[in-house]
């Protein structure tokens, strides 16, 4: 589980509820009609904007923001160095057996292309084309949540207008003005919360996850092509570390030094 997502949700709810309770009660901010207008209206508009299959797929992708990252750049580089050592000692065909233990379908596909003797340029083209489509799918899912972030405040404003119309119709009865005005403002609150507490943070987390995954796949492509070219594992490691931030490069170098020390010791 991604503790940042869970922690953010819990902290956000805590601060909201605490702030409300300090000045009033939660029941003041609970209004079924406002929920129907804002939440229901936003998802109805999103249904119109997207095909049903994309709507369902984007909702299922919500689980990604609750999952912790399985692999990082360091893990990928270690795996590639391991594969390059196998290739240098036993030949490229030995990578086929090594590929069976890899869960990453993208890397496995690249390895099998190399084992099949595919031209390096064609291997790069195939993997980069797949990468473009992966990035496109990520962008589509992210766009879905960004669209909800756009529709939420708009439907909150629609609810506010409905509340104001109802208020104006009953201006001859001053006792109803406060209630109608309150309902009108609650829809704006719901719309803002839906956008800024749920939809846009989800879209941003998906963007971060997508960028990380794309980077890992770019590292994989360069690593696999270096293996295919028969480059030295140490050279491959230095080349792939160019993709990383300085702090990560140092971390990997330290781990590498420790591992070499353990082997030599």
From TrEMBL:
Transmembrane feature ranges: 35-53, 148-168, 180-203
Chain ranges of the MotA/TolQ/ExbB proton channel domain: 99-216
Claim: NAD is one of the keywords in the record: no
Membrane topology classification: Multi-pass membrane protein
Keywords: Cell membrane, Membrane, Transmembrane, Transmembrane helix, Transport
Location in the cell: Cell membrane
Gene Ontology biological process: bacterial-type flagellum-dependent swarming motility; chemotaxis
Annotated GO CC locations: plasma membrane
Highest taxon of source: Bacteria
Signal peptide limits: none
Predominant subcellular localization, coarse grouping: membrane
Keyword Transit peptide in record: no
Similarity annotation: Belongs to the MotA family.
Name of the protein in question: Motility protein A
Source taxonomy: Bacteria, Bacillati, Bacillota, Clostridia, Lachnospirales
């Amino acid at each position: 589980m991604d503790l940042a997502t869970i922690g953010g949700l819990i902290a956000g709810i805590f601060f909201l509820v605490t702030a409300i309770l300090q000045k009033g009660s939660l029941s003041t901010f609970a209004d079924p009609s406002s929920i129907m207008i804002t939440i229901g209206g936003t998802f109805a508009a999103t249904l119109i904007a997207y095909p049903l299959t994309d709507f369902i797929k984007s909702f299922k992708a919500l689980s990604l923001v609750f999952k912790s990252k399985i692999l990082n750049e360091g893990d990928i580089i270690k795996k590639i160095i391991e594969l390059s050592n196998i290739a240098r000692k036993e030949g490229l065909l030995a990578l086929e057996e090594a590929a069976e233990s890899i869960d990453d379908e993208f890397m496995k596909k690249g390895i099998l292309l190399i084992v099949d003797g595919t031209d390096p340029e064609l291997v790069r083209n195939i993997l980069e084309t797949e990468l473009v489509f992966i990035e496109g799918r990520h962008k589509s899912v992210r766009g879905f949540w960004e669209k909800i972030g756009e529709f939420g405040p708009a439907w909150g404003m629609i609810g506010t207008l409905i509340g104001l119309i109802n208020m104006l119709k009953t201006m001859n009865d001053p006792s109803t003005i406060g209630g109608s005005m309150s309902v009108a403002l609650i829809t704006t609150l719901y719309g803002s919360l839906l956008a800024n507490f749920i939809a846009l943070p989800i879209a941003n987390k998906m963007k971060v996850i997508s960028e990380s995954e794309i980077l890992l796949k770019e590292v994989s492509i360069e690593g696999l092509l270096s293996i295919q070219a028969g480059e030295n594992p140490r050279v491959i490691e230095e080349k792939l570390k160019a993709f990383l931030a300085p702090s990560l490069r140092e971390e990997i170098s330290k781990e590498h030094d420790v591992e070499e020390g353990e082997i030599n010791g």
